[in-house]
């Protein structure tokens, strides 16, 4: 499964775990993360879950912190920082 698909699948799982709802019709590249339906706790759970599934946390690997604002930026960070690319 691609990183993008793993993120989308995990995103929906975290929405369910946190009793949250997707606030946009679907996750696409232009979706603003703050308007997606996950709050800061939800994103923390998402990053931890992705660390378990993908085997890395790009946010702990960065020399300088980067905070994505869109879904595309979020996926791009995982794709660029993947040790398996």
Q: Can you characterise this structure?
A:
The protein has 85 residues and is mainly α. Helices cover 53% and strands 0% of the residues. It has four helices and no strands. It has helices at residues 3-17, 40-54, 58-61, 71-81. Helix 1 (3-17) crosses helix 2 (40-54). The longest helix is centred in the first third of the chain and has 15 residues, at 3-17. It is globular.
Write the layout of secondary structure elements.
Elements: H1 3-17, H2 40-54, H3 58-61, H4 71-81
Helix pairs in contact: 1-2
Rg, please? 12 Å
Query: Which residues sit in consecutive blocks of at least 5 with pLDDT less than 50?
Result: none
Query: Assembly state here?
Result: single chain
Order of helices and strands: HHHH
Q: What structural class do you assign from the helix and strand content? A: mainly alpha
Question: Keywords, please?
Answer:
globular
In summary, what is this structure?
This protein has 85 residues and is an all-alpha fold. 53% of the residues lie in helices and 0% in strands.
């Amino acid at each position: 499964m691609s990183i993008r698909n793993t993120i989308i699948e995990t995103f929906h799982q975290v929405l369910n775990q946190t009793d949250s709802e997707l606030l946009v019709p679907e996750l696409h590249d232009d979706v603003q993360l703050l308007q997606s339906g996950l709050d800061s706790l939800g994103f923390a759970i998402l990053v931890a879950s992705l660390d378990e599934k993908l085997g890395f946390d790009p946010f702990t690997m960065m020399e300088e912190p980067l905070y994505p604002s869109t879904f595309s930026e979020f996926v791009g960070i995982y794709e660029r920082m993947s040790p398996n690319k």
